[in-house]
Amino acid sequence: MASKLTLSLNQVVIQKAKEYALKNHTSLSLLVENYFRFLTKHSTNKSTLSPIVEELSGVIKLPENIDIKEEYTDFLIEKYK
Predict the structure, then answer these.
(1) Cα dihedral across residues 22, 24, 28, 30: positive or negative
(2) How far is the C-alpha of 21 from the C-alpha of 48, rounded, in Å?
(3) Residues 6 or more apart in contact with residue 7 via CB below 8 angstroms
(4) Is 81 among the domain residues?
């Protein structure tokens, strides 16, 4: 259920957040909600991942039987031939 929240923020911060939201095709409300969700999720579980890495995790779906170390080794061998 959505509820209203009133915030008092620096006008420059608000403008930059609006520009960011526009570039990323989202709303300020969703940005704030996701940030609060991130804060509360990690308040008990201290993650060493940055928020950006955390957000990107799970974006790529790999086959379950893939050996990432082997794939990376093959990549490096090809790169440095």
Answers:
(1) positive
(2) 26
(3) 32
(4) no
Distance CA 70, CA 16 (A): 43
pLDDT at 43: 60
- Whether 1 has a pLDDT exceeding 90, the answer reads no
Residue 34 lies in a domain: yes
Domain that holds residue 35: 10-43
At what angle are helices 28-42 and 11-23 packed, to 10 degrees?
100
- Here the tokens at position 69 are 């170390």
Identify the residue whose tokens are 């490096």.
76
Is residue 15 assigned to a domain?
yes
Instruction: Please state the domain count of the chain.
Output: 1
pTM of the model: 0.49
CA distance 26 to 40: 21
Q: Is residue 37 part of a domain?
A: yes
